[in-house]
Every structure is written in structure tokens, then in C-alpha cells.
């Protein structure tokens, strides 16, 4: 049961996300009936499944919201901004009730419901009420739930009671499908029902009873006396209704038998995202088939699998080494086969861990909505490249830095409507989030069209903090980098949103912790752009194994542009300037032997590995290039984690350890060296 | 007559075990009686199981009965619409109505 509750919680979180997205869309398109219906269905599902799994506080609270929102759905009140915002706030409360069902949330919930009630009252009259239903109609409602309904916690009696609540109901069970005991799967549902219901409510109210089991059931609703049926509903009846009165002995439709699909048992039908009401059953069938194509796996199992693959890759590289050192041809053949297979396994594993950044970007719509309300600024968020995929671990760790950057953009970057008007800009400020893949990295940019970074203020602050000498010449790029210093904030007043002086340095550290880099560009009056370059994965990379002195090091292969030879003569000639000429451009290089103070004499033929991060490149002088190496990244111990030159370590096939070079740091160091040289010249 | 004691709640989580007990009893005897503990918890899945057992008895020419009138079943039977158009046979089986037992 605990597993069922865990699944419910996962599904409910997803449902809450959908509700939030629907509400945010509704702010832009308040007239969109499909959106209103989608949100209502989300609330209804949450209420029903919450009650089913014992989340009574959640079910109760959601019930009130659903009732209030039902008035929007019925067209009695308009989806005003206030009303939608109140439901958004209520949604947050539902999330709390989901995560902490035993907590004391009553008072907060009551306050939210009072807000919602007020918003509904104010919205009342903003929409023309629907024409009242004329008289009572008698309907024949026939339904069969999916065979696995009992196992999934669906309760047919609750549905029947809901129908009874609508009016006078004559309920007859259909036992014709119940098989003899010896042929019976005892936890399958074999019963069907025919309910003759006389009610003043319309067809949609009856459909709502089944709203969160609609996907996988058969349902027919017919007006028994057509004369009495409300005329505006009759034409809709034919196209909307599910298959009409399927013969009771007809084979159950594919959609009603998800238990045969390998994964559906793990997914309670009752909490499956609801399809539009009275969707044709064929579409429902296709949906069920589609659901069967994916399996929900807990993230920690994926991590565990990733660890195993990592260990396998290490063992394989050991095997390769033993095979390569011996003369056994057969062993070598097997070793090569295993190398190929483990490489493929690694690639497959990587794909499994990839998730689209849309899962991340989606959260920020709400953030921007809240920021707009808090700051009183009109803000529009647009996103691009949402299908770009990144390792799930990276995605999780990117969330906080991005929240901070977006807050910064909204709070500091974008001007007030008056200031924007004065600057000749449209009143609505824009924040654009985009992502694209570039080699082994994903580049995420956050751009705003605000006032841009005030260089004078940055300079003044940097001078007052002693980061630069007063009046010192400093490049624009370096000046902007100042904002990444700890405790650096130019905000004149600390606001609720940002400007507490803790932020950009933490953002930078987090991004660098992901082996990524952060860059900022800004044009006064036109806005700022922060770019994050993040590696696709944190777990295993292709590396170039090199030797420097007696030590072995791994350079991430994605960063390697080319390898050159540096003869002893050239090395001696370049002493004191450390540049190599590469196709008419001078590239600075770092002698790793000197940096690491190996105390060994240089090899006769040293190698230069040219590495780059975006536009910047440098050469790294090593003693020997050993070859490519599938590198399982292990984090450094606490003692060594502060060393900026290395981003991690890996275990080699012979059991030795190689440190992984942090290319971003080395490139920055090389560029710094180049700048110093230029100054010296 | 073979008596099957139903001492666990007649609900979805227990029906598989009870199904087997009833089938075993049918193997051993032509007449099987289900003896429910008083105020036994019953759900719709339990009721469905008893319905299937009745069909089994009919299919193999044996008899099935309840040891006591099944008042514990009544709320579920009513709510699920089993009693709306119940036959005399149904009422006799569930509540011993019109029966000499």
C-alpha cells in the first residue's frame, strides 16, 4: 500500500503541475473553455484520488476549490486574474497537504478558501449565467469500469452514490459477465451497471461523476424521454457520448483492459491524467496503448544502475589492459567485445537519464507570474529550445541558480512600466529563457530587455569593497565578472525578491560545481544576458588520458580540439612567452609539468593538447598522450574538493587514480597568463 | 455438507484465498455452506466473489448456501443495485427469505 501511496503522490504532483500550467495559461486565455475544463478535471481527479488514498485533508480542501472553480466551468463567473491567482495559491496549499498530510494546515487553508470565495464573489456577474436547465430529465446511464478497478482502488459504489446525489436513481447491477468461480480472476471487476436517473442536472453533470475513470471505461448516457431533454443538449449528445449502449455480452474494449499491459498495474487508473470528458473510446484505447509504452522508474534506481554501469566500465578497462598486455588472442577478442558492449550500455544508460529542460522551464512560468504580482511589473516569459535534454541530476541542480537569475532579471533588470515608457520601451518587460545543445554541453541563457547592468555602480561597489583599485583600468568583461564576488550586490534596497547580496556567487559556485561555466553580457538600456554552459552529464565522460611526469590525468574529450607535438627545441624557444602559433593565431599554453611541479625532466617530444571552452582556447603541454578513456567521474574528497584545477577523479584499469582536469579553469588561467604577457609587452 | 468458515474480512485483499477455499470445498462435497463471522466486513469485491461461487455451484450441479442470513452483505447489495430487481432465488440465498432453513 505504501507503494501505491508513493505512486499516488508522484501522480498527484504531476497533476498539480498540470493544474498550475493550466491556470497560468488561463491568465493569458481566460475564455478558453478547454483550459477551464482541464483545470477542473485536474482538481476533480486530485480530490477523488486523494480521498481514495486517505489524504482526507487534501481531498476536503480540493473539494472546496473544485466547487468554486465549477462556477467558472459552468460559465457563471469569469476566470478573472484574481480568481485564477487565488486558485494558484490554493494549488500551493494542496501541494503542502500532499507532502505533509499530517501537518496542521487548517488555518492557512481556511484563509485561502476565504480569498477564493471573495475572488469568486467579485468575479460573479462578470460572466453571463448559463440558461437554467428546464425541468427534470430521465437518463439511462450504463457503465462498466476497467477490469483492474478494484486493484486500483476505484470504488464503483462511490460512483453510484454520486449519481444518487444528482437525483432519483434506480440502480440495477449487471452480473451477466460474472464467470463461475473456477474461471474467475477474483480481484477483477466483472460487474456492470444500468442506472435510470431522473435529474435536473444536465448530461455534463453525469459525465463529471466518471471524470477520473473516464479514460478506461465504457459509458453510455441516453436521454430516456427525448422530449424532455434540454434542446440545447440534444445535438451534442450524439458526438460527445461514448459508444452507445454496447451490448452487454460484447467483448470489453481494449481500453478497458489495461491490466494486460505490462506496466499499467503500477499506474492506478484512477489517478491517470483524465482525458477530455466523453472522449471517443477509440482515442481512449490509443491513449492506453501509448501509456503502456513508458515505464515509471524511481530516480534512485536509475542512479543505482548508473553506478553499476560505472563500475562495469572500470572493470572493463582493467580487462582491456590485461588483454592488451598479454598474447592471448581469444581473450583480446572477448575483451574488445565487452568494451563495445559496455560502451553501448553506457550510451543507453545516458539516454535513460536525459530529461528535457521543459521540465525545468515549466516551473518558471509560475515564478514569473508571482514576481509580476510582487513587483507590480508586467512581465512576459518566453522559452525556447525546451526539448533540449540534460542529465536529470544536472536539471535538479540547475533549478535554484535559475530561480535566482530570473528573480534578478525581474527585480533588478526590468524597469517599472513608467520607466520603460520613458525609455521608449513596451510596457511589458520580457524575460527569455532558451536552451540549446552545443557539443557536449547545453547552453542555457536568461535574457531580459531591462535596463542592463549599471557599470558605474558595479565599479563603485567593487572599489568600495577593495576588489579593484580606485580608477584602475579594467576591461568591461572583467568589470561584469565582479558581480560574481561573494557578498557583492548593487541593489540599493534589499527587497523580498533578491538583493540580499547572497546570490550570484552562489549561482557561479553551483554552476562550476556542475563542471559548467557562467558568463554575463549586458548592454546599458537594452538588457542583460546570462549564459550557463553545462555538461550534458555528470556521470561518465569520454576522456583523453595523458601523462605528466609520473601522474596520469584525464582531459574531457569534448573540450579537446587537436594535439600537436612540441619538440624540445620549440619548447626552449618559447620559454618566457608560452605561445604556440596555430594557423596564424597565437595560442597561449600551460606547461602542466611546471604547474604540477613534477620535478621530472621534460620528455624529448612533449605534446600540446589544444582545449577550448567556446571561443577561448589554450594548449596544455603534457609528456605523453596515452589514449582515449571512458572516464567514470568520482568526486574528490572534501580535502581536495577546493582544488580548482581538477573537477574530479577517476579509477583507471590498473587500479590507479587519474585526476580529471577542469578545462574551464585552465582556459581561464591561460587567458589570464596571456593578458599578463600582453601587459608586460 | 462442507462448511467453509469465513473469518477474514470479505474484501478485495482476501478474496483470492477465499476463492481457493471454496473451490477446494466443492472438490470435497456437493453442498458447501459459507459461515461468516457476525458483522464481517464485506465489500463489493467480496459480494462479486460470492456471486461467482453461486455460478460455480450452478455450473457443476452443486449447492452453495450461507450458514446465516447475510445481513452483513445487505448495505453493499443495496448500494450496488443487487436487490433492485432481485429474484426470489436471490433473496432466498442472501437472506434466507421464504426458505425453511
TrEMBL record, chain A:
This is Chemotaxis protein CheA. Gene3D superfamilies: Histidine kinase CheA-like, homodimeric domain (1.10.287.560), Histidine kinase-like ATPase, C-terminal domain (3.30.565.10), HPT domain (1.20.120.160), SH3 Domains (2.30.30.40). It catalyses: ATP + protein L-histidine = ADP + protein N-phospho-L-histidine. The lineage of its organism: Bacteria, Pseudomonadati, Pseudomonadota, Alphaproteobacteria, Caulobacterales. The modification Phosphohistidine is found at residue 44. It is an enzyme of class 2 (transferase). InterPro entries: Bact_Chemotaxis_CheA, CheA-like_dim, CheA-like_homodim_sf, CheW-like_dom_sf, CheW-lke_dom, HATPase_C_sf, HATPase_dom, His_kinase_dom. One of its GO terms (cellular component) is cytoplasm. PANTHER family: CHEMOTAXIS PROTEIN CHEA (PTHR43395:SF10), SENSOR HISTIDINE KINASE CHEA (PTHR43395). Residues 1-101 form the HPt domain. Residues 230-261 are annotated as: Disordered. It comes from the Bacteria. GO terms for biological process: chemotaxis. SMART domains: CheW, H-kinase_dim, HATPase_c, HPT. Pfam families: CheW (PF01584), H-kinase_dim (PF02895), HATPase_c (PF02518), Hpt (PF01627). Involved in the transmission of sensory signals from the chemoreceptors to the flagellar motors. CheA is autophosphorylated; it can transfer its phosphate group to either CheB or CheY. Residues 540-672 form the CheW-like domain. It comes from Brevundimonas aurantiaca. Keywords: ATP-binding, Chemotaxis, Kinase, Nucleotide-binding, Phosphoprotein, Transferase, Two-component regulatory system. Residues 290-538 form the Histidine kinase domain.
TrEMBL record, chain B:
Residues 1-101 form the STAS domain. This is Anti-anti-sigma regulatory factor. Gene3D superfamilies: STAS domain. It comes from the Bacteria. Coiled coil: none annotated. It holds the Pfam family STAS_2.
Amino acid at each position: 500500500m505504501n507503494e501505491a501511496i508513493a505512486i499516488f503522490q508522484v501522480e498527484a504532483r504531476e497533476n498539480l503541475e498540470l493544474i498550475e500550467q493550466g491556470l497560468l495559461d488561463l491568465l493569458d486565455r481566460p475564455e478558453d473553455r478547454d483550459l477551464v475544463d482541464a483545470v477542473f478535471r485536474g482538481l476533480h481527479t486530485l480530490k477523488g484520488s486523494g480521498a481514495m488514498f486517505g489524504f482526507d485533508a487534501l481531498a476536503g480542501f480540493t473539494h472546496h476549490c473544485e466547487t468554486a472553480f465549477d462556477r467558472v466551468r459552468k460559465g457563471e463567473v469569469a476566470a478573472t486574474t484574481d480568481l485564477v491567482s487565488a486558485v494558484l495559491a490554493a494549488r500551493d496549499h494542496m501541494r503542502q497537504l500532499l507532502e505533509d498530510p499530517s501537518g496542521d494546515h487548517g488555518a492557512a487553508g481556511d484563509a485561502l478558501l476565504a480569498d477564493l470565495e471573495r475572488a469568486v464573489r467579485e468575479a460573479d456577474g462578470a460572466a453571463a449565467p448559463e440558461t437554467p436547465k428546464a425541468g427534470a430529465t430521465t437518463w439511462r446511464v450504463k457503465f462498466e469500469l476497467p477490469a483492474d478497478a478494484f486493484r486500483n482502488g476505484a470504488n464503483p459504489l462511490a460512483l453510484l452514490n454520486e449519481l444518487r446525489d444528482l437525483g432519483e436513481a434506480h440502480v440495477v447491477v449487471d452480473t451477466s459477465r460474472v464467470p463461475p468461480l473456477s474461471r474467475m480472476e477474483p480481484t477483477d471487476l466483472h460487474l456492470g451497471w444500468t442506472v435510470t436517473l431522473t435529474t435536473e442536472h444536465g448530461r455534463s453533470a453525469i459525465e463529471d461523476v466518471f471524470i477520473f475513470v473516464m479514460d478506461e471505461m465504457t459509458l453510455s448516457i441516453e436521454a430516456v424521454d427525448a422530449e424532455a431533454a434540454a434542446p440545447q443538449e440534444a445535438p451534442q449528445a450524439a458526438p460527445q457520448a461514448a459508444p452507445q449502449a454496447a451490448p452487454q455480452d460484447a467483448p470489453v474494449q481494449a481500453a478497458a483492459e489495461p491490466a494486460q499491459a505490462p506496466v499499467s498495474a503500477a499506474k492506478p487508473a484512477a489517478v491517470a491524467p483524465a482525458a477530455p470528458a466523453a472522449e471517443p473510446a477509440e482515442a481512449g484505447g490509443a491513449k492506453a496503448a501509448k501509456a503502456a509504452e513508458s515505464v515509471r522508474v524511481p530516480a534512485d534506481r536509475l542512479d543505482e544502475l548508473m553506478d553499476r554501469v560505472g563500475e562495469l566500465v572500470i572493470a572493463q578497462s582493467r580487462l582491456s589492459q590485461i588483454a592488451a598486455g598479454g598474447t592471448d588472442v581469444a581473450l583480446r577478442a572477448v575483451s574488445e567485445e565487452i568494451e563495445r558492449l559496455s560502451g553501448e550500455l553506457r550510451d543507453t544508460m545516458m539516454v535513460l537519464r536525459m530529461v528535457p529542460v521543459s521540465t525545468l522551464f515549466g516551473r518558471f512560468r509560475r515564478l514569473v507570474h508571482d514576481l509580476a504580482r510582487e513587483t507590480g511589473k508586467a512581465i512576459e516569459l518566453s522559452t525556447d529550445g525546451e526539448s533540449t535534454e540534460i542529465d536529470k541530476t544536472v536539471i535538479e541542480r540547475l533549478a535554484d541558480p535559475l530561480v535566482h537569475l530570473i528573480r534578478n532579471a525581474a527585480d533588478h533588470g526590468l524597469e517599472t512600466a513608467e520607466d520603460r515608457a520613458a525609455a521608449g520601451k513596451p510596457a511589458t518587460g520580457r524575460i527569455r529563457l532558451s536552451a540549446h545543445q552545443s557539443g557536449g554541453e547545453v547552453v542555457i541563457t536568461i535574457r531580459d530587455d531591462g535596463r542592463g547592468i549599471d557599470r558605474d555602480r558595479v565599479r563603485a561597489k567593487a572599489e568600495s569593497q577593495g576588489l579593484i583599485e580606485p580608477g584602475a583600468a579594467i576591461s568591461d568583461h572583467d568589470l561584469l565578472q565582479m558581480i560574481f564576488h561573494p557578498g557583492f550586490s548593487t541593489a540599493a534596497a534589499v527587497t523580498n525578491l533578491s538583493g540580499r547580496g547572497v546570490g550570484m556567487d552562489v549561482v557561479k559556485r553551483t554552476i562550476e560545481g556542475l563542471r559548467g561555466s557562467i558568463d554575463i553580457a549586458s548592454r546599458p538600456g537594452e538588457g542583460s544576458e546570462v549564459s550557463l554552459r553545462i555538461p550534458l552529464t555528470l556521470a561518465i565522460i569520454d576522456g583523453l588520458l595523458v601523462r605528466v611526469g609520473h601522474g596520469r590525468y584525464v582531459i574531457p574529450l569534448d573540450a579537446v580540439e587537436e594535439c600537436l607535438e612540441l619538440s624540445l627545441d620549440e619548447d626552449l624557444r618559447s620559454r618566457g612567452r608560452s605561445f604556440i602559433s596555430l594557423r596564424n593565431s597565437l595560442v597561449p599554453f600551460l606547461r602542466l609539468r611546471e604547474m604540477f611541479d613534477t620535478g621530472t625532466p621534460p620528455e624529448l617530444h612533449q605534446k600540446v593538447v589544444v582545449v577550448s571552452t567556446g571561443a577561448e582556447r589554450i594548449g596544455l603541454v603534457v609528456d605523453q598522450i596515452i589514449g582515449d578513456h571512458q572516464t567514470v567521474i568520482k568526486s574528490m574528497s572534501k580535502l581536495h574538493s577546493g582544488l580548482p584545477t581538477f573537477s574530479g577523479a577517476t579509477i583507471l584499469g590498473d587500479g590507479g587514480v587519474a585526476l580529471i582536469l577542469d578545462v574551464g579553469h585552465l582556459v581561464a588561467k591561460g587567458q589570464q597568463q596571456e593578458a599578463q604577457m600582453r601587459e608586460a609587452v | 455438507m462442507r462448511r467453509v468458515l469465513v473469518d477474514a474480512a470479505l474484501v478485495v485483499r482476501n478474496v483470492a484465498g477465499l476463492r481457493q477455499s471454496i473451490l477446494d470445498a466443492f472438490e470435497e462435497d456437493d453442498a458447501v455452506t459459507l459461515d461468516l463471522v457476525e458483522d464481517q466486513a464485506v465489500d463489493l469485491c467480496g459480494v462479486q466473489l460470492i456471486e461467482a461461487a453461486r455460478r460455480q455451484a450452478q455450473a457443476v450441479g452443486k449447492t452453495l448456501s450461507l450458514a446465516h442470513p447475510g445481513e452483513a452483505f445487505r448495505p453493499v447489495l443495496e448500494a450496488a443495485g443487487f436487490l433492485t430487481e432481485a429474484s426470489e432465488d436471490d433473496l432466498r440465498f442472501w437472506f434466507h427469505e421464504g426458505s425453511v432453513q
